[in-house]
Structures are given as C-alpha cells and as structure tokens.
Amino acid sequence: MAALNKLAIRGIRSFDDKQISVIEFFTPVTVIVGHNGSGKTTIIECLKYATTGDQPPNTRGGAFVHDPKMANEKEVKAQVKLRFVSASGTRMLAVRNLSVTAKKTSGLTMKTLEGILALADGNAEKGSKRGVISTKCAELDTEIPQLLGVSKAVLENVIFCHQEDSYWPLAEPSTLKKKFDDIFEATSSAGTPKLSTPSRLYERSVLPISRPKKNI
Ligand SMILES: Nc1ncnc2c1ncn2[C@@H]1O[C@H](COP(=O)(O)OP(=O)(O)OP(=O)(O)O)[C@@H](O)[C@H]1O
Prior knowledge:
The chain is globular and about 45 Å long. The protein folds into two domains: 147 residues, 3-Layer(aba) Sandwich (Rossmann fold), CATH 3.40.50.300; 50 residues, no CATH class. The chain is built from six helices and six strands, in the order ββααββββαααα. It is 26% helix and 23% strand. With 216 residues, the protein is an alpha+beta fold. Adenosine-5'-triphosphate binds next to helix 1. The site of adenosine-5'-triphosphate has 14 residues, from helix 1.
C-alpha cells in the first residue's frame, strides 16, 4: 500500500526560505494540530503540490511562495520535498522547486523550476543521476499519482481537497457532474463517455430527466 513518509518545506507561505521544516507521517494516522495561521493548511497544500503539481486556489501570482518582502529579499527560492512509498512498495522521492522575484514596480514573478522524481535510495538529492526517473514537471504530475495508485482527480478533490474548494459537493449540477466524471474517470481522454460508472448512475438518479410525452 502507498504511504507518505516525510515532507520537507522551505520557502512556502509562512515557512521561510532560511530553514527546512520537516514533517514526518506516522502509521496509522498523523494528526496536525496548531493555532490559527500556524501552517496546518500549508502542509496539506504542500502535499497536494508535491503529488499533483497544483498550487492552491488564488495563488497564481506567486502567493504560495514565502513573501520576498517578509524575507527582506528580492528573490525567494521555495522547495517541497516528499518521501513516499509507492503502491508497489518502492521508496520514492519527489522534489518540486519554485522561485518568486519581487518586481521593480509592484507584484511578483513566479517561476516553476525543474523538479526531481527519483528512487529514494539513489542519492538524487546529492546530485547523483542514479535512480532519477524524471526532472520534468509535467512528467512528475502524471507519474506521481500513478505511483501512489490514486488518480489526480482523487488527490485534488478528495484526499488533499483544499478547504476553499471543499464545498464542491454542493456545487451546481454541471460542476458536480464534471467532478464525478473526473473522480470516477467516466470520460476517456478524448472526452467521450466510457462505460456506465457510478457518476453516470449518480447523474441518472439525481438530475431531472425530461422525457417526451406520449400521445394517448
Ligand atoms: N506568501 C506568503 N508569505 C508569507 N506568509 C504567508 C504567505 N501566504 C500566507 N502566509 C501566512 O501563512 C499562514 C497560513 O497559514 P495556514 O492557512 O496554513 O494556517 P492554518 O494553521 O491552516 O490556519 P487555520 O487554522 O486558520 O486554517 C498565515 O499566517 C498567513 O499569514
């Protein structure tokens, strides 16, 4: 069974870029406790980012990275590192890198830098190429969910669902249908419906279906 072992965060939200904070996950459960604003959500955001490559909602302009103004720097380099065990029992390492630069006028410029997906025992962190599977972010985005044995949609909408997105089950029918289709993989990559899946059954049982009236 897949498992998360350790998460290292540097330069994300309130986690500054001067030190690395390490969170270890224990079996069967790890409880994250802290005051408001202490960084509990940030830990989940980092897990989602490490596994899917998706940054939290409303952070497009670089708000996910520690604010350079607070760091008193022009540029902040951020890193999220996750050690995990794949569904087949292999110890893996995923590293994602970001940087944010304060613009001369105002605002931020964010860059996504090369990542690493590697075997945890291959010394990729020390620069060794042994055991490195990919350094391309797009490949990490598809490979990591596969290694965990969970679809990207389930990681995004269920396991690491952001608190700002957690009301999606109450969304309007078309949004809800799309979410269920993604989660149950009801559409092929070409967008055509696959076999009858739970989402299709859900759609049939919940959405009003207009039937032509019969002439008697
Ligand atoms: N870009 C940023 N740079 C620096 N600090 C930031 C940045 N973005 C958010 N923060 C700070 O990081 C913290 C975010 O904390 P987070 O939401 O993870 O806390 P939490 O423990 O989940 O809080 P709550 O219990 O209220 O949900 C806040 O204190 C916020 O001010």
